[in-house]
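Lab notebook, bench 4. The sequencing result for the construct came back, and we need a structural model before the next group meeting so we can plan mutations. Quick request posted to the team channel:

Model the 3D structure of this chain.
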Amino acid sequence: MVRSFFDQSRISPTESGKTEKIDKKSYLPAYVQLATILKQRISAGTYEPGSRLPSEASLAKHFGLSAMTARQAVGVLAEEGLVKRVQGSGTFVQRIGVATSHFGLDALRNVFMDKDHLDVRIIKATVESAQGAPCKALEVENGERLVVVERLILHQGHPFTIQVGYARFDPESPIVETMLDTKMLTGLFFEHGPSCFMKGELRLLPACFNEKEAELLNSKAGDSAFRLEHIFYDFSDQPASFGWFTVSPEKMPLISKVGVWNE
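Done. Here's the predicted structure in token form:
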């Protein structure tokens, strides 16, 4: 049976024939309960993608709530990207935005923020003549002297990732201090605070473990890995620091949730 546009915008009972109710004695605020009901209906297909939700006034009247409470509930759905308010037309259920999904670095963040179980070991800190990608990224000539730092990062006693970093060699630059200070490095990625950088760029690339990485991370040479490249710019808008993390996909899964999740 095909429902009309106006049928879809009415208050509808659940498939069991019962209309959900707001428990005003619950510890959950009424607007949260209503938002959950609406999300469940979207998930069940009662309100299909592209259909119009009941008006906030209708929702308020049907559930015995204030107009402000109904507006708060719809606002929750709008913030989560489940519905879109169109001035003068109403509120419409959004289609699943797979093309605009985002993959976070939650695994890396969780490890870096778990400071009680984090062990960072500097396995190399030198000044050397660099070649190839670091020179290109930092816009310097091949053979120029760069600070090179390599770290092995362990979590709960197990190797998690290797971080390699390059910066222009300038003993008076605060960037060199950042390169050597592990707390500043982790703070740069996942905490708010002052920084000697103006902006940065992250790039996630497929890679394979080389023999050294495989040995340090208890893996096999040639196994698949992620390479998270990072380049940061100073306040003169010049590339100042370049490097990457190498980690296995099992330890840093990339997950993006789309659609309706009643969590």
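The two ends are 31 Å apart (CA to CA).
Will bring this to the meeting.
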